Amino acid sequence: MHELVVEDAMVSFDGEILACSIGIDEGKITRIAKVLKGEEKYDARGRLVMPGVIDSHVHFRDMRQEEKEDWLSGSKAALYGGVTTVVDMPNSDPPTFDAEAFKVKQTVAANRSMVDFSLNAGVGDNLPQLPQLWKLGALAFGEIFMAKSTGGFSIDEPALKEALKAITLMGATASIHAEDEALHEELKKSLKHDPSSSIHSKLRPRESEINAVEAAIRLARETRVAMHITHISTSRAVELISREGITCDVTPHHLLLTMDHWDRLGSHAKMNPPIRHDSDRNALWKAVNDGSIEVLASDHAPHTLDEKNLPVREAPSGVPGVETMLPLMLKAVADKRLPLQRLIDMTSANPARIFGIEGKGSFAAGNDADMVFVDMAKVRQITPAGLHSKAGWTPYRGFEAIFPEAVMLRGDIVLDGKDFYAKRGTGKFIPGKGYKRLSDVLKMARAGKRT
Ligand SMILES: NC(=O)N[C@@H](CC(=O)O)C(=O)O
Ligand SMILES: [Zn+2]
Ligand SMILES: [Zn+2]
Question: What are the binding positions for Zn(2+) 1 in this chain (predicted)?
């Protein structure tokens, strides 16, 4: 007898969709079988049930940027989009570059988040801080900015190499934002008076990403670091990366938006790396389908409507996306643009494995009971008013999408149709592999070992 049984669930097992029951005890999955007995039951009503989505690249802002997003609004948007775990990036204010800032963010997120969360640590001129950030439970290092993006951080190659050596020694993973700062500086001068609406894509051309990916690969070979390259946007980057033991992710915006969107969206289409031509977009879809891109991540990067209504050269880069990622991609599954199992792998098992997110990523016994319930027939159009980020705007207005019917986090139904049950502060911190509990640190100190 299980504490809770999800009945009449349709679950994808290696692409084959089978009706089953899911047994849950103490918030964890204990068994999947045709029929199970439970003290309590949740009727999935023949809906598709997939693992809660892990979004391994979000910017939930907060602290000194609460006007853009905070952990309450960000995590609420996440849940409405079927995302039950997020990994937050370090270019917040204050930036997550030292122990103090890490602890502050951890406290704020723990008090506000309604989804489980991991925090990445930043890498810049803070080399001595990295081991401590690792011990505090940073999931990975990055995104590491090879070129300036929102927040204005960047690191040159020699410094990056030193950092990657340190990251290798710790056994951690480095996640790279690959663009070429020197090329951007040159183009800023030569294109100073270019009035075209697509100027941002010209200022950060595909060569920028390709140069940086080449440099990153060189450094990965030299330092043997576990490297992941985030939000890739070009066919060439995919080619280069897939020959190496390096992983990468792609965003929905690089799969769904192209240069054609500049005229309609203006600054609302501005992000780094920028949108590209159809040829790159098509290559990204192919790579998503053949498995050479392992992860789908939103790069949820909210800015206020006022900021994004500025002219394209002045507006900040970044688009919100945590709530629309799964719905847009489920519509792509319905349209046969990618198999359901690929989408599931890219949003759960793969990010969990690559970043070492414990207890998440599949319906294996012992994992957290994080689930998304989907009715593939329920297609609706995205409207800004229907979304929950503080941003209040979306580049996907009018796009068709399939939003989750219900969401479960660690055995609790947190969203069910129109009912929303999640409470602030219920999200759990998921530390990375370097995390040392205080008791372990003391034990090791007593045994005379270095921590
Ligand atoms: N992607 C963006 O254009 N912006 C991100 C930063 C980043 O991911 O580079 C942001 O924090 O706003
Ligand atoms: Zn980035
Ligand atoms: Zn980002």
Answer: 57, 59, 143, 299
